[in-house]
User: Which sequence fits this backbone?
């Protein structure tokens, strides 16, 4: 690595001022700096102005109201990780925050920086001399993609952990702009399917906060991260599942967020087809098929693309099985099921699909190298 280059640091007190400063040519926002600084030192960006967001007071707020949680983009991952009330309601988010890098790192790394971090590729996250020796690449300084040389797009992967649970919870992001009105959009709309320019933020726009709606009572959620090094590494596939089961043990709600496999994190489409069904082998396979079709890992990591696809499938199936078992133990569901059993006529406890007792959740073996977080 080399020096981060020559730049001046500006420290605005409000988001509106920060957005105006970002209109300067060569200006870049800095939160914790854990992604930005290594990238500057690798020569991946050339900043003239660094707009340090650390002085913006509203940036670090965690608030809860009737609608849900408002999390300032500057909230550190360490605060998320240790927040007991958040852990009770948004368990997958807290697990994902705790799975990012190492503990020292998480004391400065922020939620907004995590969501806005650059995409990654073995041909890109290298020193300048390494990339030069390789002729650079399409994303920065060159004209060829070494991952897919026939194509004209970059397939670098988005590897932030927190986007997966936030997508599963249906979160929205609040954006502040110098030239655009303050707005809220679904988190998925923050991203574009392009490894070279994966954010949809316009010039002078910043992420101000993330809004997460309250989950319905009885919702169970968890995050699972497959990575090469257990101690500290980006996700090869990061999967979050949030679900509810009804008194019959059938799925009443299911959403899945996935990170690490595509140039953008994704909320799995088609999960509504699994609703009103028990969580049996067929449901696990159906979910696995949805995941396998929608993830598009390319050879942008040291691990084979198909391994990342299989890791995502295995994580989703495993979480579905485990969480359905957990959700079935929720007080409301357990007592409703017991009451249904007590009052049901004997024939209704047979094998009729509407009254069948919930099958035991099936556990599938996890793919190699994956880890329960
Ligand atoms: C050794 C190492 C291990 C890591 N491991 C992981 C990991 O396991 N999982 C993971 O997800 N990440 C990992 N990271 C990446 C990074 O540390 C985290 O994503 C972290 O959360 C980034 O937050 P930050 O506040 O430090 O962002 P910064 O570095 O300050 O910013 C990241 C990017 O987002 C932009 N930005 C920051 N805030 C805003 C905002 N509010 N609005 C608009 N743009 C903004 C910056 O300009 C920059 O481009 C790792 C990094 C390192 C160096
Ligand atoms: S996917 Fe291709 S263009 Fe994108 S960073 Fe990797 S080598 Fe470069």
Assistant:
């Amino acid at each position: 690595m080399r020096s981060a280059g020559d730049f001046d640091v500006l420290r605005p007190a409000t988001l509106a001022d920060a957005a105006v400063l970002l209109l300067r040519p060569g200006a870049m926002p800095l939160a914790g700096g854990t992604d930005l600084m290594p990238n500057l030192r690798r020569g991946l960006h050339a900043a003239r102005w660094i707009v340090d967001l650390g002085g913006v007071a509203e940036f670090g707020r965690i608030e809860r109201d009737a609608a849900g949680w408002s999390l300032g983009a500057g909230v550190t991952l360490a605060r998320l990780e240790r927040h007991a009330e958040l852990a009770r309601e948004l368990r997958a988010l807290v697990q994902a925050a705790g799975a990012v890098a190492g503990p020292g790192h998480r004391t400065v790394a922020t939620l907004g920086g995590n969501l806005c971090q650059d995409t990654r590729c073995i041909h890109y996250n290298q020193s300048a001399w390494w990339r030069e020796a390789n002729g650079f690449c399409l994303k920065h300084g060159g004209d060829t993609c070494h991952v897919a040389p026939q194509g004209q797009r970059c397939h670098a992967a988005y590897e932030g952990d927190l986007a997966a649970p936030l997508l599963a919870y249906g979160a929205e992001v609040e954006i502040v702009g110098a030239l655009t009105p303050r707005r809220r959009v679904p988190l998925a709309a923050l991203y574009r399917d392009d490894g070279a320019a994966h954010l949809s933020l316009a010039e002078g726009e910043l992420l101000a906060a993330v809004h997460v709606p309250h989950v319905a009572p009885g919702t169970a959620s968890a995050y699972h991260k497959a990575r090469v090094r257990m101690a500290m590494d980006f996700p090869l596939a990061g999967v979050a599942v949030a679900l509810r089961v009804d008194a019959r043990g059938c799925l009443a709600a299911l959403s899945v967020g996935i990170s690490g496999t595509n140039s953008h994190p994704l909320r799995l489409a088609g999960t509504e087809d699994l609703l009103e069904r028990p969580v049996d082998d067929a449901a696990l396979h159906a979910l696995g098929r949805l995941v396998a079709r929608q993830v598009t890992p390319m050879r942008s990591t040291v691990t084979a693309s198909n391994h990342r696809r299989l890791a995502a499938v295995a994580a989703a199936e495993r979480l579905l099985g485990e969480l359905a078992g957990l959700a079935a133990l929720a007080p409301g569901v357990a007592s409703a099921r017991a009451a249904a059993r007590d009052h049901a006529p004997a024939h209704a406890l047979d094998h009729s699909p509407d009254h069948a007792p919930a099958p035991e959740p099936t556990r599938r073996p996890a793919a190699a190298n994956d880890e329960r977080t």
Q: What stands out?
A: Confidence is low (pLDDT under 50) at residues 344-373. The first strand starts at residue 8 and ends at 10. The radius of gyration is 22 Å. Residues 121, 123-124, 137-139, 145-147, 154-156, 195, 300 surround iron/sulfur cluster (ligand 2) (CB under 6 Å).
